[in-house]
Please model this.
Amino acid sequence: MIGAGVHGASVAFHLASRGVPTVVIERTSPAGGPTGRSSAIVRAYYTNAFLAGVARDSIAMFRDFEQHTGRDSGFRETGLLVLHPPEDEAMVREVVPRLTEQGIPTDLLEPQQVVAEWPAFDLDGIAIAAFERDAGYADPVLTTQGLLERARELGAEIRLGHGVTAIDRDGSGWTVSTDDASVAAERVLIAAGPWTATLAAMVGVDLPLTVERHIVATFAWGDDARVPAHGDLPNGYYFRPEGDDLFLMGPLHPEPTVDPDAFDERVGAD
Ligand SMILES: Cc1cc2nc3c(=O)[nH]c(=O)nc-3n(C[C@H](O)[C@H](O)[C@H](O)COP(=O)(O)OP(=O)(O)OC[C@H]3O[C@@H](n4cnc5c(N)ncnc54)[C@H](O)[C@@H]3O)c2cc1C
Model:
């Protein structure tokens, strides 16, 4: 396994749970890449039925995280409100009952119902809304560490602080090398986030991946009435509480591509 973000940690946990000998190689530390900066909203409100189903099962895992790993993932069930423009209305009316049938309890809300519940919203341009009751957010670092530590207890080997520098064919398997060691593996999973394309190129695979910078800004609540975790599709942002005193926001629109090893990590005034 290359990479100990949330995906590498999760796969290591599931493999180790099934008794598959697993080695995780991570260049920095668990959740040291984008995972550690994630807004970590956990939701199953997807129009694609397969994606919605796996997300529903993931929410169940977050709910029982302590039972699975013996640790806390920081999961908080807040629900998630999604505000839609008029052009989405027919799709939302079709998807919401389908999700509820799939075991993802979701309420269809007319704008006047949203304002009755949360008067602080200005719903100009909003035609319909959906509220997914079981959605929430987790702590991405605790989640990754919890999965990885449980994987280690179940027999996985975790190697931190050295990045993979080469992946070579070795008979029917592979040799994965870092600057200080090499590991023989039957199969290799590259879960290296924005660095994946570079690693895939080492085995001659050209993946058409690009890397985007995404801004997340955290604010203290003022005296205004509070609103729930929500995504505002026409206005292009998402929002969720961060503990009791703060909330965070991020844009939904595409961002410029960047070099994952050299980009501005500050939030500018604009
Ligand atoms: C700002 C932001 C907000 C987000 N918000 C949400 C959200 O609300 N909900 C949601 O579901 N998703 C969200 N996401 C997406 C989600 O966080 C990512 O999909 C997820 O964290 C990716 O995890 P990963 O394990 O695939 O990759 P990463 O977190 O990128 O981990 C890859 C790991 O590979 C390691 N690595 C790289 N190169 C090498 C090498 N050569 N050798 C060894 N190790 C290497 C890195 O150090 C890193 O630790 C957000 C992402 C960002 C950036």
Notes: The chain has seven helices and 15 strands.
